[in-house]
């Protein structure tokens, strides 16, 4: 900031004397106007000009400092981004050794640039994406090179004039077929990159082969340098601080559930004005968390596609049921739609007067659903069977039944409440019941996942019993403060961070 | 199918005689078992084996025919896909002339392959995407080539040993910086491809320059061949049956609205059991149309990013306010969330008994909202000011007010209805009121768009008047059959098609 100001200062004509305030902003320069006796209009113009000059400078300053702070935040939010950039730099420097080392250059020559190009195009943030692209590039090159060599030989047979015509026809034909194939949904989702590389290699080798007599050597050089580049990427991506798409997906699904849980717990407290558990009434930021869940479909699908390529790592074996995560994700999103509708009714100005009994029961439903989702998120995150979630869901269901009997009791619609006042209450009740149903569905799919991959069974010390119907007292479970199994509660802020990162990367 | 069966037939031992049913499926072969007297267990095994063989064959057959019909459907749904494939083939064949024509080959040599690679990587379905990628590739190559030549000269100064070290350091540094830059949201959204090409060109030219003394020539050849490839793509993409991303976005937004309108009109008829206007009660397919709207965010943002690159075309000038479309899209999606919640209540088994007056008013609200959205979709599609939408929104608002007074009237909660029955009704009422609000917001943003780009003002011949509050008779507007302005109604099925296409392509 200071540098830029002194630079501006140097640009000004020498007769102009400016005072800089302690904050570095120029003050209106009265001294100058008095000494030069410039008429008012001109004076104003000059002032504007100078202010403009300073304004521009400040603008640039502000933008640069905003940019710098954004860049810092990018790195601070997820240091793996910095590590990834260093990994790409390392891989690129390694493959450029093919040029710098004489023995290597002797064997590959200018074809070494394919290794450089492969590194730039194949190296992705997650190991799965890098593996997928690398393997696809290798296979597509192999297949296309073989076909191109065949096409070249075929074209060779047709004489000097026929050769370029036939080659051109082959190039045209394969480009049309594979470009059209890229519209096919399965190919588009999984093998899009492979199709592009096929078209590229086939065209390149069959066309180059027309000029280069050693077409087999050309194909071999392209294939071997691509294999060198691809394997460099894959090795560095997997061995040096790997980022696993599977783990990202796993964390994203858990954190999405956690966001819905935060909303429901906040809704239980804020809407029904019960600031218990130390939640401040003004802290309503958690009510926006669910919006990112609404649009997470693409991200989840991409991560699942990448995860399919990854070998076993950490708690995930090869062929981990990633599809099940998509199912859980879809159900979480359906719940988020209901929550978005609920959110539309969170208007403190038009808050209806709700009979206290209904308020309590609604709050309980919301809180219990929130607790259940928190348990489920935690269960996924730690890969431990979600015993306690069942209890919370039963609690919320019994609260819903309580609500039914409360609404049925004739005393409710007294003099204080007419039907019109009941409408918003009924809506919230109804949406909450929907949310309970959605939560149950989510729990079901999490249980399916738990049995598919054998989640660890850590029984809570206080064994939960099924509550009787209509029971109003919520049952104790692992997230209550005095329960011994509280030890598995993990740091939630990190959950938040991971999602926002993986989102921005999708 | 017949071919495959005869092939299977040939594979069987000669003693086996099979009967093919008229559908080509093998029948259980009783003749065979009688003549060979095979014991039952073996017989069963053989049967299974043969069935397995036929089963496999049929399986392959079924898959192939399914694939073929899918491919046909792909082309039939959107013939532009076939045209695009042909365009890519044409462009690739054109640039491969750089190899086949001696004079062209004399000037470019093997560098001609960059033109081939550029075509494969740059040619996209929409003109905007092709233009964006082409221009970015050109600019990034120019900038990176200039910097790489500079870096090469700098490294040259540092002697024989220092040169590769300094070059390697430069390559490492730019790879790290630009890979990290790709995480920056603005760069990621708009200049991701440019960054990749920058890294690629810089590495390629600075590293190749170490071996090739004519680094300037190398940079010039790469740049010129990339320009040839890029401009071929851009020219073909724009001149031969162009597909405009802007038009796609325009149609997508209109068709998304149309889908919501279909839902609301269907909901008005089906849920409230009023099969008027010839809508069959069983035809409930339109109730699923809105699900694709829920996840259209990514698609819309991509199309808007591509559309920014496009020159003026048809009814759209350069710098058409594409951002406004995103705003309308976001509001449409918000409405879709409410509709998804409404959809959860469309359970014919648990349909509550609703007093007929409420039912009628709810139905009217839903129908009027649907009509308003249809008008708005039509207005966008035809770029004509949406006069009639206002009328329908006012109608739905007055229906909502009617509903209020209906609910307030004490006679409603008679002996036939208790509070519990009221809950689902109240929820639907409340969600419909939300939908009315959302529709109003959508209308507002469409009006903003209409004033930004000067939509044509085709006043309806029957000038709509503002209805009085509480008026129950809906006002006439342009979508009523007898109105003269019915002429602007366009074919709706095409709307549906366009969206599904552009979605699958996103």
Distance separating the two termini of chain A: 35 Å
Instruction: Briefly note the structural class of the backbone of chain A.
Output: mainly alpha
**Can you give the helix content of chain A as a percent range?**
over 70%
Q: Could you tell me which chain pair has the largest interface and how many residues each side has?
A: A-B, 81 and 81 residues
Average per-residue pLDDT of chain A, rounded, comes to 76
Order of helices and strands of chain A: HHHHHHHHHHHHHHHHHHHH
Main β-sheet description of chain A: none
Number of strands of chain A: 0
Offer a concise description of the structure.
The structure is a homodimer of 506-residue chains. With 506 residues, chain A is mostly helical.
Explained architecture:
- The structure is a homodimer of 506-residue chains.
- Chain A has 506 residues and is mostly helical.
- Chain A has 20 helices and no strands.
- Chain A is elongated.
- Chains A and B meet through helix 3, helix 4, helix 7, helix 9 and helix 11 of A and helix 3, helix 4, helix 7, helix 9 and helix 11 of B.
- Chains A, B: It is found in: Membrane.
- Chains A, B: Pfam families: ALMT (PF11744).
- Chains A, B: This is Aluminum-activated malate transporter.
Keywords:
disordered C terminus, elongated, 506 residues, disordered N terminus, transmembrane helix (chains A, B), signal (chains A, B)
């Amino acid at each position: 900031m200071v540098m830029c100001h002194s630079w501006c200062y140097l640009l000004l004509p020498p007769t102009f004397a400016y005072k800089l305030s302690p904050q570095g902003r120029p003050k209106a320069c009265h001294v100058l106007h008095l000494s030069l006796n410039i008429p008012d209009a001109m004076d104003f113009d000059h002032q504007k000009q100078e202010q403009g000059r300073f304004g521009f400078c400040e603008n640039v300053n502000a933008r640069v400092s905003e940019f710098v702070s954004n860049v810092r935040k990018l790195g601070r939010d997820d240091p793996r981004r910095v590590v990834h950039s260093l990994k790409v730099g390392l891989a690129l420097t390694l493959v450029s050794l093919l040029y710098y080392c004489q023995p290597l250059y002797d064997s590959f020559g200018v074809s070494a640039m394919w290794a450089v190009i492969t590194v730039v195009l194949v190296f992705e943030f997650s190991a799965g994406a890098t593996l997928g692209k690398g393997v696809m590039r290798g296979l597509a090159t192999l297949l296309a090179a073989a076909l191109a060599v065949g096409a070249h030989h075929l074209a060779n047979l047709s004489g000097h004039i026929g050769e370029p015509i036939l080659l051109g026809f082959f190039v045209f034909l394969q480009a049309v077929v594979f470009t059209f194939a890229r519209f096919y949904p399965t190919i588009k989702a999984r093998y899009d990159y492979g199709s592009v590389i096929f078209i590229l290699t086939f065209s390149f080798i069959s066309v180059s082969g027309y000029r280069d007599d050693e077409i087999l050597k050309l194909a071999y050089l392209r294939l071997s340098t691509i294999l060198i580049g691809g394997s460099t990427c894959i090795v560095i991506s997997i061995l040096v601080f790997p980022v696993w798409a599977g783990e990202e997906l796993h964390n994203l699904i858990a954190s999405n559930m956690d966001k819905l849980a935060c909303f429901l717990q906040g809704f239980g407290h804020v809407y029904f004005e019960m600031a218990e558990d130390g939640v401040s009434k003004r802290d309503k930021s958690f009510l926006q968390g669910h919006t990112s869940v609404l649009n997470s479909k693409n991200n989840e699908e991409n991560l699942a596609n990448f995860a399919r390529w990854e070998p076993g790592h950490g708690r995930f074996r090869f062929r981990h049921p990633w599809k099940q995560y998509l199912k859980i994700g879809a159900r979480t999103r359906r719940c988020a739609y209901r929550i978005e509708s609920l959110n539309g009714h969170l208007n403190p100005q038009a808050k209806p007067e709700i009979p206290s009994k209904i308020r309590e029961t609604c709050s309980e439903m919301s809180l219990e659903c929130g607790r259940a989702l928190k348990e489920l998120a935690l269960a996924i995150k730690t890969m431990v069977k979600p015993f306690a979630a069942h209890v919370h869901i039963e609690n919320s269901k019994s609260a819903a039944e309580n609500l039914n009997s409360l609404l049925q009791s004739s005393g409710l619609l007294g003099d204080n409440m007419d039907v019109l006042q009941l409408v918003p209450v009924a809506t919230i009740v109804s949406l909450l019941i929907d949310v309970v149903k959605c939560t149950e569905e989510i729990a079901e799919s999490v249980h399916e996942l738990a049995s598919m991959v054998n989640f660890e069974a850590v029984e809570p010390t206080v064994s939960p019993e099924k509550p009787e119907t209509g029971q109003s007292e919520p049952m104790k479970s692992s997230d209550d403060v005095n329960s011994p199994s509280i030890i598995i509660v993990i740091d939630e802020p990190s959950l938040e961070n991971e999602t926002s990162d993986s989102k921005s990367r999708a």
